[in-house]
Amino acid sequence: DTEVTQTPKHLVMGMTNKKSLKCEQHMGHRAMYWYKQKAKKPPELMFVYSYEKLSINESVPSRFSPECPNSSLLNLHLHALQPEDSALYLCASSQLVSLYGYTFGSGTRLTVV
Amino acid sequence: KQEVTQIPAALSVPEGENLVLNCSFTDSAIYNLQWFRQDPGKGLTSLLLIQSSQREQTSGRLNASLDKSSGRSTLYIAASQPGDSATYLCAVSSLRTSGSRLTFGEGTQLTVNP
């Protein structure tokens, strides 16, 4: 299995809702990432998990809460989002020193109304 | 701080043409460089990965080169097809950040016309 699987593919949520994005990989990668991508811009790093521990938080607002329950799963919990948080959310994984590159999922298109 | 620049920002070519996309980076202390393809609203598909010790990688009609000392990479696409239309992103994994993050260029939006 050489894929990163993200669910759901599309999500529409109100500003008072709580929702979660899920990401799964079975490649044995010990680093997992959340990226945010706005239209016509490159992906921006949000969080990095190494060995299931949060190693990088790029000053992301607390309304985004990541969780890594085990080495194969990564969640992003969403609460009280703003319309400007609407974007494509991408999950990626890699070996810890990324010698073999990064593998990205197909993303979740999030719309906040 | 690593900065990655891609030229051109957009490119429109007729089908069958050979083309070159350019990527430059400011810090040569990299683990590797990766070229991705992104279709509108979709995720990133890895095309080629070049380790810092390598000079080039090939996959089918694609060839990527790396000149680490000058901070440049090129992606060569031979005999372009309409299905190649997409945004192409160059990304470097930097040694100073322990390989834990990628720095992306802004991308080249390619349109191949039938």
Number of DSSP strands of chain A? 11
**Amino-to-carboxy terminus distance of chain A:** 36 Å
Distance between the termini of chain B: 41 Å
How would you sum up the major sheet of chain A? 7 strands, mixed
Which sequence of SSEs, written as H and E, runs from N to C of chain B? Answer: EEEEEEEEEEE
Mean of residue pLDDT of chain A? 93
Number of helices of chain B: 0
Structural category of chain A is mainly beta
The parts of chain A where pLDDT drops under 50 for at least 5 residues are: none
Q: Which structural category do the helix and sheet elements of chain B fall into?
A: mainly beta
What is the radius of gyration of chain A computed over CA atoms, rounded to a whole number of angstroms? 13 Å
Q: Give helix and strand order of chain A, one letter per element, not per position.
A: EEEEEEEEEEE
The portion of residues assigned to helices of chain B is: under 10%
Shape label of chain B: globular
Assembly type of the chains comes to heterodimer
Task: Give the biggest sheet of chain B.
Answer: 6 strands, mixed
Radius of gyration of chain B: 14 Å
Structure, described:
The complex is a heterodimer of chains A (113) and B (114). With 113 residues, chain A is mostly beta strands. Chain A has strands at 4-7, 10-13, 18-25, 31-37, 44-50, 53-57, 64-70, 73-79, 87-94, 102-104, 108-112. In chain A, the strands form two sheets. In chain A, strands 2, 4, 5, 6, 9, 10 and 11 form a seven-stranded mixed sheet that branches. In chain A, strands 1-3-8-7 form a four-stranded antiparallel sheet, with no helix packed on it. In chain A, β5 and β6 (53-57) form a beta hairpin. The N and C termini of chain A lie far apart (36 Å). The model of chain A has no long low-confidence stretch (mean pLDDT 93). Chain B is globular and about 45 Å long. Chains A and B meet through β5, β9 and β10 of A and β4, β5 and β9 of B.
